[in-house]
Amino acid sequence: MVHPILVWQPQKIFYNERSGVPAQPSPSPDRAAGAQAAGPGSASPVSLTLASAPLAGEPAAGEILIPGVKGRTRRPAAKPPRHLADLPMDERRAAVAGLGQPPFRASQLSRHFFGRYTDQADEMSDLPRDSRDALTESLLPQLLTADRELVCDGGTTRKTLWHTFDGALVESVLMRYPDRVTMCVSSQAGCGMACPFCATGQAGLTRNLSTAEIVAQVVAGARLLADGEVPGGPGRVSNVVFMGMGEPLANYAAVLAAVRRLTDPVPEGMGISQRSVTVSTVGLVPAIARLAAERLSVTLAVSLHAPDDELRDTLVPVNRRWKVSEVLDAAWAYADATGRRISIEYALIRDVNDQAWRADLLGSLLAGRLVHVNLIPLNPTPGSKWTASRPEAQREFVRRLEAHGVPVTVRDTRGREIDGACGQLAASAR
Ligand code: SF4
Question: Going by C-beta distance under 8 Å and a sequence separation of 6 or more, which residues neighbour residue 41?
C-alpha cells in the first residue's frame, strides 16, 4: 500500500557498479509539481537502474546538473581551487616546494589553518613577509563565503548559509551545549537521495563538496569559538556530525579525507577525536562495508526512518536498491569491525511512521544489538504536509522501543526557529 500522502513522480537513480553509490542524479524536472498535482493512487514506483556511470564527484562530459523543479540547466563543471586541506602533508610539502619555498613551510601553514584557524597572511608572523601572500593565495584560497547567519538559543545555535566559489549553496550549524560543541556539516551541495520529507532532497544534487570545502565549515566554527564569539567563552569544536546537506557516503573519497583532516593531530589536521565524529548514511551498503574496512573509530548513523520495506521504499527511495535487512546487516558488520555503537536515526512523522506496531517492529529488529536510536521530531519544511508526531505517539514509540531493551533518545530540536532542518535555509535562499 502506498501511503496517500507519499506521492511523487517516478525518477531514475543510477548506481555506480564499482562503488555502489548513486551517480550524479537526474532530478525529475516535474517532481515537485507532480507531487502537488498527483492524487492518491497515482504514484508510480521509482525505477532503479544499475548503470556504468561516473563515480560520484566525476561528472559526465564535463558537466554537472543544476537541479530545479522546472527544467534542467547545465553549466560547465568546475573544481574548487586547490586548498591545503585537500592534501596530505607530503603533498602539501611538495606544493610548497613548487612555490620555491622550503618544505617545512607546509607545516607552519598547516598550524595556522588547523591549529589557529586562520588563513590570513597578516596573522602569520612566523612566515617571511615576502612569501606569505604567495603561500596563502596558492594554498589557502577562500572556499566558502557566508551569505547569511541565523542565531538562536541565546547565540549558542548558529546556522550559516555559505556559497562556494561557483555559487553552490551549503549549510552548516554550530550547536553549543554545556559539555560539548557540535558542528553539523554538509558533504554535498544539495542531495540526490530524494527523501520526500527533506528540503535538501527536494532540490536535488548540485555537486559534491571537496574535502577542503567540508573541513572549512568546521574551521569556521572553530574560529568563532576560539575568538569567543559564541556565548559561553572561548572553546573548541569537540564533535562533528556529517548530517547536513547531502549523503556523505555518496561523496566517499572527499568525506573520508575530511574525516582524516578533522581527526589527524595538528599540524596534519585539527586533532578532533575520531570517536567524536559521526558519519550518517541512508544505507549505501557497499560504501558502509568500505568504511568498515577503513577501521576508523567514527560512529555510523543510519537514517532508517521506517522498519519495513514497504514504507521505507517511499520515505527513503534508495531502499529500493538496498532493503532494510541489507542495510542493518551492513551496520552490524560495521559495529563488529569497529566496536562502535550504531546510531539509528528515525524522523518521527505524524501518522506516517509513528505507529505502535512500527515501534515494535523496529524494536524487534534492533533488540540485542550494539545500537542506539535517535528519534527526531520532524521539523516540517514550509508548505509540506509532513509534520511531527503527536506527543502521545512519540511517548508510546519510545516506551515500546525501551520495552525491547533498545536505548533511545528523542533528539533535541534545536534551531527550529532558524530553519534548522537540513536544507531549509538554502531552500528559502533559492
Ligand atoms: S534526508 Fe538526507 S539523504 Fe535524504 S534527501 Fe535529505 S539530505 Fe539527502
Answer: 2, 4
Q: Give residue for cell 520495506.
A: 309
Q: What is the pLDDT of residue 384?
A: 75
Q: 198 catalytic, yes or no?
A: no
Half-sphere exposure of 43 (CA within 13 A, CB side): 17
91 is known as an active-site residue: no
Q: Judge if the beta carbon of residue 187 lies within 6 A of ligand 1.
A: no
Closest atom of ligand 1 to CA, residue 245: 7
* Beta carbon of 427 within 6 Å of any ligand 1 atom: no
Q: Which of 171, 213, 247, 345 is catalytic?
A: 171
Nearest CA to ligand 1 atom 5: 201
Q: Is the CB of 171 under 6 A from ligand 1?
A: no
Q: Which of 26, 73, 71, 72 is nearest to 48 (CA)?
A: 26
The Cα 406–Cα 365 span in angstroms is 10
Ligand 1 midpoint to CA 424 (Å): 12
pLDDT tens track for 271-290: 999 999 999 999 999 999 99
Q: What mean pLDDT is reported for the chain?
A: 83
Please report, for residues 49, 79, 119, 272, 400, the alpha-carbon distance to residue 222 in angstroms, rounded to integers and kept in the order given.
42, 25, 13, 11, 40
Give the residue, by CA position, lying nearest to ligand 1 atom 4: 195
Cα(421)–Cα(230) distance, integer angstroms = 21
Model confidence pLDDT, tens digit, residues 219-262: 999 999 999 999 999 999 999 999 999 999 999 999 999 999 99
What are the tens digits of pLDDT across the range 166-222? Answer: 999 999 999 999 999 999 999 999 999 999 888 888 889 999 999 999 999 999 999
- At residue 20, φ and ψ (nearest 5 deg) are 80, 0
How far apart are alpha carbons 305 and 352 in whole angstroms?
Answer: 10
Distance CA 314, CA 281 (A): 16
Contact predicate 79/86, CB 8 Å = no
User: Does ligand 1 lie within 6 Å of residue 198's CB atom?
Assistant: yes
Say yes or no: CB of residue 347 within 6 Å of ligand 1: no
Q: E-strand spans in 104-156?
A: 144-152
Question: Does the domain at residues 84-139 carry the CATH identifier 1.10.150?
Answer: yes
- Predicted TM-score (pTM) above 0.85: no
**Rg, the chain, Cα only:** 22
Please check whether the domain covering 145-429 is classified as CATH 3.40.50.10090: no
Domain ranges, ordered by start, for the chain? 84-139, 145-429
Q: Choosing from 184, 191, 198, 422, which is the catalytic residue?
A: 422
